[in-house]
Amino acid sequence: MTEVSSLTGRLLVATPALADPNFDRAVVLLLDHDEEGSLGVVLNRPTPVDVGDILESWGRLAGDPGVVFQGGPVSLDSALGLAVIPGDEGPLGWRRVHGAIGLVDLETPPELLARALGSLRIFAGYAGWGPGQLENELTEGAWYVVESEPGDVSSPRPERLWRAVLRRQRSELAMVATYPDDPSLN
Fold first, then answer.
1. Which of 45, 101, 143, 145 is 20 to 30 A removed from 18 (C-alpha atoms)?
2. Count of CA atoms in the C-beta half-sphere (13 A) of 111
3. Average pLDDT score over residue span 53-59
4. Helices and strands in the chain: count of H runs, count of E runs
């Protein structure tokens, strides 16, 4: 088996050629990536459901927009919490994934995390890949891999995240941000 270089904490940005409707113009934050597979959440798929309607005690802590995000097509009945917590030490109930970004244990009483939270997002479901599956998609050119920034998790305009992430790249990827929604209308 070939060695897998971890992409944990990086972003997968869907290429315009990616045909899977679950990931059309998706920006996925990889929470785990190793030889056993990959797991991430789609950062730019807000739903109309308020966090408070599903997880009442976390509703007031959710960042703007305070809605549940569809994290991906797998396990839509499960919830993941992502929070940005600045500094070296995180509070009980939070596990660092990359930099200031970490997973929130949603079983933890919210008041234990409230003072430390820089931002919080709740995701229903996740995106998952089996061993070697993501590497095959990368080889096929389905995704751009770029560095994440803590603000990506809490973008107040998630519908603009795909273009914003591409636009900030210092390469030809910045030009991909101008790719039309429907190239047949061009």
1. 101
2. 0
3. 95
4. 5, 10
